[in-house]
From TrEMBL, chains A, B:
<dbReference type="InterPro" id="IPR020095">
    <property type="entry name" value="PsdUridine_synth_TruA_C"/>
</dbReference>
<dbReference type="Pfam" id="PF01416">
    <property type="entry name" value="PseudoU_synth_1"/>
</dbReference>
<feature type="domain" description="Pseudouridine synthase I TruA alpha/beta">
    <location>
        <begin position="142"/>
        <end position="243"/>
    </location>
</feature>
<dbReference type="InterPro" id="IPR020103">
    <property type="entry name" value="PsdUridine_synth_cat_dom_sf"/>
</dbReference>
<dbReference type="InterPro" id="IPR020094">
    <property type="entry name" value="TruA/RsuA/RluB/E/F_N"/>
</dbReference>
<feature type="domain" description="Pseudouridine synthase I TruA alpha/beta">
    <location>
        <begin position="8"/>
        <end position="102"/>
    </location>
</feature>
<feature type="binding site">
    <location>
        <position position="109"/>
    </location>
    <ligand>
        <name>substrate</name>
    </ligand>
</feature>
<keyword id="KW-0413">Isomerase</keyword>
<feature type="active site" description="Nucleophile">
    <location>
        <position position="51"/>
    </location>
</feature>
<keyword id="KW-0819">tRNA processing</keyword>
<dbReference type="InterPro" id="IPR001406">
    <property type="entry name" value="PsdUridine_synth_TruA"/>
</dbReference>
<dbReference type="InterPro" id="IPR020097">
    <property type="entry name" value="PsdUridine_synth_TruA_a/b_dom"/>
</dbReference>
<protein>
    <recommendedName>
        <fullName>tRNA pseudouridine synthase A</fullName>
        <ecNumber>5.4.99.12</ecNumber>
    </recommendedName>
</protein>
<comment type="function">
    <text>Formation of pseudouridine at positions 38, 39 and 40 in the anticodon stem and loop of transfer RNAs.</text>
</comment>
<dbReference type="GO" id="GO:0160147">
    <property type="term" value="F:tRNA pseudouridine(38-40) synthase activity"/>
</dbReference>
<comment type="subunit">
    <text>Homodimer.</text>
</comment>
<comment type="similarity">
    <text>Belongs to the tRNA pseudouridine synthase TruA family.</text>
</comment>
Length: 243, 243
């Protein structure tokens, strides 16, 4: 039986999603519980491997089990064994052909920024502090040209290993909040560090440190044009889409 | 020159306010920075010594300095040296007779609870999870008799060393929030664990595990009548009053 599990996690005390020997990771914690329950190693497959410090409002994973546990019971059992910063919100049985990573049709990420002059100790690890004046209209002008199908080489980390850098961005919004704003971006997929590099660029435009030049930067396919990467703490994987 | 410093801190990574050798505490962190700046030991005096895991939206401390730094400059210097979970919101010069602890005329504490069925990993260390049905009206009836001057022996920890257990509660409210509620309590002063014991009692009444019996419990002056203490993570020192 293949199960699809929807998870939330607060990334600040994890060394990212992916298993690393001797370090606390989301994958390590889940596989350890499942392996104990099954008395043999259980591998989980995530929709996306989030980096160290990155959060998930919704992450999806799948795994296979022979245990005779009804899917509605799984949520309770997993949550009882998981630590407070990792929570299972839903477990459903899926067809054996389902794959949490290969079958995704899109993802939404949210990037949270607060702009008050004073630092807020209760946002530590949860929102990025940006106490400098920003021109919201300039940022919106720099965001609009991202929509569409583009090669995002200029907005991805040189460490990425995927050859095809073409992705489609279907939605990119700035949502004002009580004490700052969120960027919410939806696309077919995202390259390594892509959201954080895009956010760093938009903030530089908003600060007046560089002019809006989105399409030229995209077309240049040149990684060095946007050297900055926004911090992990503000980034949330928000939703995974399947057909 | 005596300075009054208003602080905020996220208590989840501190072993409380008070200095403890080899452990991370708010006092330890502040005194270490001040001692480096003065090249001699500087003692700070807080309005209240919060426990491990307890937060402060406003804590007040004072210390004496001979350094020729304008008080408006102090805030900047301290924040530059403090870690992210500890923030100075205000520094003002006060008379040499001022004392942050002895001159307080009252304090407000807030206790944050969320009641959604699912745990929220982003509230870890910041709000107490209470996913059981509560009768708000019953809780309010149990809260009302706290107002006034009472001996709070029944609602304080046996570990407290202060002889006089009489305190005045001037205000006690339940404020509903997006996903739960806050208790906000103001009084002349609070005994050791008093707010957390009162909250534990009110929640037991709200759950229907015990009947409202506030005045009788107070009058009994008997510590064993309320054996529970609500967790530290939901508690915030919110305000300190001086004349």
């Amino acid at each position: 039986m293949r199960l699809l599990v929807k998870l939330q996690y607060n990334g600040q005390h994890f060394h990212g999603f992916q298993y690393q020997h001797g370090l606390r990771t989301v994958q390590g914690e889940l596989e350890s519980i499942l392996t104990k329950m099954h008395k043999s190693f259980v591998r989980i497959h995530p929709a996306s491997r989030t980096d160290r410090g990155v959060h998930a409002l919704e992450q999806c994973i799948h795994f296979d089990t022979e245990l005779a546990i009804p899917s509605e019971r799984w949520k309770f059992i997993l949550n009882r064994n998981l630590s407070e910063d990792l929570h299972v919100s839903e477990v459903t049985e899926v067809e054996s052909s389902f794959h949490a990573r290969y079958l995704t049709t899109g993802k939404t990420y949210r990037y949270k920024i607060y702009t008050t002059k004073d630092r807020n100790p209760f946002y530590m690890g949860l929102k990025t502090h940006h106490p400098y004046p920003l021109d919201i209209e300039k940022m919106k002008s720099a965001m609009a040209p991202f929509i569409g199908v583009h090669d995002f080489t200029s907005f991805s980390s040189a460490k990425g290993t995927i050859q095809n850098k073409e992705r489609e961005i279907t939605d990119f919004r700035l949502i004002e909040t009580e004490d700052g704003f969120d960027f919410v971006i939806t696309g077919s997929g995202f390259l390594y560090n892509m959201v954080r590099i895009i956010v760093a660029y938009i903030l530089e435009v908003g600060e007046g440190r560089r002019e809006e030049d989105t399409l030229n930067i995209i077309n240049a396919k040149e990684r060095t044009l946007v050297p900055r990467t926004a911090p992990a703490e503000g980034l949330y994987l928000e939703r995974i889409y399947y057909d």
